């Protein structure tokens, strides 16, 4: 029974992690920036909701505000930092260092303003639980289980069927060609950062609602998400989501046999083994 | 006087670590976020082996150099085979795993409270137990490190790693083994940061996980960025400036709980500002 409960818990956090992995993959394949700040944006979503609910706003109102603020923050980072660096033909290394700088400023501003301690979002419904076949789920977890696949499906549909999504994939496939055919890659990059940052606010807020947050969770989440991106076969959105769910389940279920503080070691060990034996990832398909 | 001396010693120790970071990031273009953790391995190895009296200080330092080098190689081998960005993920993972190890093995590492009472280094029967007697050792280590760095940069190996940064494809087309060269750099970089870590824990006679967690990695990275890529002057300027920062912050009226995050905000702002306006750092070359 413990196993079943942990399995479901793993699926729940896997849904959140999957959304982070998928959005990170979209950013990485489109802009070629290893956007370390994405983890901090995820955390920012939770903090905005926490602040607004503390002021008395209901969760359902706070969440859209958090989405908007995260989208604005993501777009700002792209426009004011990455685009400026790219205009100066910065090397990937310079972009990476700039990205790390943005993550540091954002995470530590949260720590300085809201304290580095764990904060919990208090709502009347978030901790209510339902039982299904002996497995207890909080309503926050149910929301995660539903929103994860929906957001993931939405991202895939967006990339494949909307004009903007197709334009994004065109920019990702060949930035030079996109530039001369007036697809305006720089503007597409800003829009992509805005959309993905807004989307990642949702799992950020829901996970915080379920079991609290602290300012530095983002880096660990980012590590798992990037491991999922690589394990899923770089650029493959389905692969990234599935790998993120598998990794989260392994991380959660592994607590049966070893203490929780080592679960990151288990994930990382799996990743290293995978890199040695199958460096291209689990699900290789040439669809970017 | 003593205060100034200990500032100098710490800056010298971090200058060795900055050379390590520079070899990886500045010279070769391998971005690592695990420098703090590797520094920690050096610090803990020397602390543990001198605390338990199993090894004398010089041998403990050798062991630290060897182990740090090995861990760097173990990280580089699987990930660099594939792509540079994979090393970011591998090193970030390594940083988290090692921080977990430093924190959660109280029987060995002392857990979160760390190891206190690390004995001072003993060389030729002399105990280097205060700043006045320690500074010759730190200075000697720094000069030896600088000389070695200078020689390596001008050796065929140094030219090769510079060439790899400029054009990896051309180098491998010329029949050179790019992967093994990069692994060699990782090994050398591990030696530098291992020495720095070992000196750090014996000078302070104390080591705990907070000196080698991810924020330590960020600090080492910021030192490298501020000082500048590839030059020895950069390796000295970065640590000298950033080690003065906590002192400068201490005189300002900031609540102590906000001091840690504020320092990190300054590091982040420095990284962004330098990348935007002066990616080569104060005294470095083009990054």
Nearest-angstrom radius of gyration of chain A? 19 Å
Strand order of the largest sheet of chain A: 1-2
Strand order, main sheet of chain B: write it out: 1-4
The ordered H/E elements of chain A are: HHHHEEHHHHHHH
The overall pLDDT average of chain B reads: 90
Q: What is the total domain count of chain A?
A: 1
Anisotropy-based shape of chain A? globular
Radius of gyration of chain B: 18 Å
Sheet with most strands of chain B: 2 strands, antiparallel
Terminal Cα span of chain B:
37 Å
Tally of extended strands of chain A? Answer: 2
Interface with most residues: A-B, 47 and 44 residues
Which fold name fills CATH's third level, the topology of chain A? ABC transporter involved in vitamin B12 uptake, BtuC
Judged by helices, strands and strand pairing, the structural class of chain A is mainly alpha
What portion of residues of chain A is helical? over 70%
Coarse shape of chain B: globular
Number of strands of chain B: 4
Structure description:
Chain A is mainly α. Chain A has a single domain (2-277), classed as ABC transporter involved in vitamin B12 uptake, BtuC (Orthogonal Bundle). Chain A has helices spanning 2-31, 37-54, 59-87, 92-114, 139-161, 163-173, 175-180, 185-211, 217-231, 237-253, 263-277, and strands at 129-132, 135-138. In chain A, a hairpin with a 2-residue loop joins strand 1 (129-132) and strand 2 (135-138). In chain A, helix 1 runs parallel beside helix 5 (139-161), helix 1 (2-31) packs across helix 9 (217-231) and helix 3 packs antiparallel against helix 4. The longest helix of chain A is centred in the first third of the chain and has 30 residues, at 2-31. By secondary structure, chain B is mostly helical. Chain B has one domain. Chain B has helices at 2-28, 35-51, 57-80, 84-104, 106-109, 131-154, 156-166, 168-173, 178-204, 214-227, 232-250, 256-277, and strands at 115-116, 122-123, 126-127, 206-207. Chain B has a two-stranded antiparallel ribbon. Chain B has a two-stranded antiparallel sheet with strand order 2-3. In chain B, strand 2 and strand 3 (126-127) form a beta hairpin. In chain B, helix 1 (2-28) packs antiparallel against helix 9, helix 1 packs across helix 11 and helix 2 runs parallel beside helix 4. Chains A and B meet through helix 3, helix 4, helix 9 and helix 11 of A and helix 4, helix 10 and helix 12 of B.
């Amino acid at each position: 029974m413990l196993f079943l409960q942990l399995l479901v818990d793993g699926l729940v956090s896997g849904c959140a992690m999957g959304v982070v992995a998928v959005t990170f993959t979209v950013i990485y394949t489109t802009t070629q920036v290893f956007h370390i700040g994405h983890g901090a944006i995820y955390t920012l979503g939770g903090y905005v909701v926490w602040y607004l609910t503390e002021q008395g706003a209901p969760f359902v109102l706070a969440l859209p505000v958090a989405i908007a603020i995260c989208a604005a923050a993501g777009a700002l980072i792209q426009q004011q930092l990455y685009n400026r660096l790219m205009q100066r033909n910065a090397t990937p290394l310079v972009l990476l260092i700039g990205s790390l700088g943005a993550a540091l400023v954002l995470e530590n501003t949260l720590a300085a303003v809201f304290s580095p301690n764990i904060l919990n979002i208090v709502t009347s419904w978030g901790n209510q639980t339902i039982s299904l076949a002996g497995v207890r789920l909080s309503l926050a977890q149910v929301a995660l289980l539903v929103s994860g696949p929906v957001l993931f499906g939405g991202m895939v549909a967006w990339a494949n069927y909307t004009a903007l999504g197709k334009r994004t994939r065109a920019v990702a496939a060949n930035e030079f060609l996109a530039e001369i055919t007036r697809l305006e890659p720089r503007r597409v990059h800003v829009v992509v950062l805005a959309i993905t940052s807004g989307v990642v606010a949702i799992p950020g807020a829901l996970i915080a609602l379920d079991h609290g947050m602290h300012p530095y969770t983002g880096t660990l989440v980012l590590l798992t998400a990037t491991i999922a991106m690589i394990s899923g076969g770089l650029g493959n959105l389905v692969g990234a989501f599935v790998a993120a769910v598998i990794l989260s389940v392994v991380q959660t279920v592994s607590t049966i046999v070893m203490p929780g503080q080592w679960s990151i070691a288990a994930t990382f060990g799996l990743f290293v083994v995978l890199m040695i034996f199958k460096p291209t990832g689990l699900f290789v398909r040439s669809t970017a | 006087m003593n205060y100034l001396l200990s500032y100098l010693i710490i800056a010298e120790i971090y200058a060795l670590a900055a050379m390590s970071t520079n070899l990886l990031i500045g010279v070769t273009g391998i971005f690592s976020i695990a420098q703090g953790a590797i520094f920690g391995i050096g610090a803990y190895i020397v602390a543990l082996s001198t605390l338990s009296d199993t090894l004398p200080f010089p041998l403990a330092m050798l062991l630290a150099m060897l182990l740090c080098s090995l861990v760097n190689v173990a990280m580089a081998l699987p990930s660099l085979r594939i792509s540079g960005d994979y090393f970011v993920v591998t090193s970030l993972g390594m940083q988290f795993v090692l921080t977990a190890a430093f924190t959660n093995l109280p029987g060995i590492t002392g857990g979160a409270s760390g190891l206190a009472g690390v004995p001072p280094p003993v060389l030729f029967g002399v105990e280097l137990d205060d700043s006045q007697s320690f500074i010759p050792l730190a200075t000697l280590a720094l000069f030896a490190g600088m000389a070695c760095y200078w020689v390596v940069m001008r050796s065929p190996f140094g030219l090769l790693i510079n060439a790899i940064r400029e054009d990896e494809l051309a180098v491998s087309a010329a029949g050179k083994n790019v992967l093994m060269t990069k692994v060699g750099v990782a090994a050398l970089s591990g030696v530098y940061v291992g020495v720095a870590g070992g000196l750090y824990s014996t000078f302070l006679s104390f080591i705990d996980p907070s000196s080698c967690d991810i924020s330590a990695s960020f600090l080492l990275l910021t030192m490298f960025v501020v000082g500048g890529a590839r030059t020895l002057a950069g390796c000295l300027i970065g640590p000298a400036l950033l080690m003065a920062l906590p002192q400068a912050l201490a005189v300002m009226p900031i609540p102590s709980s906000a001091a840690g995050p504020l320092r990190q905000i300054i590091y982040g702002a420095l990284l962004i500002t330098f990348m935007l306006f002066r990616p080569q750092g104060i005294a470095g070359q083009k990054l």
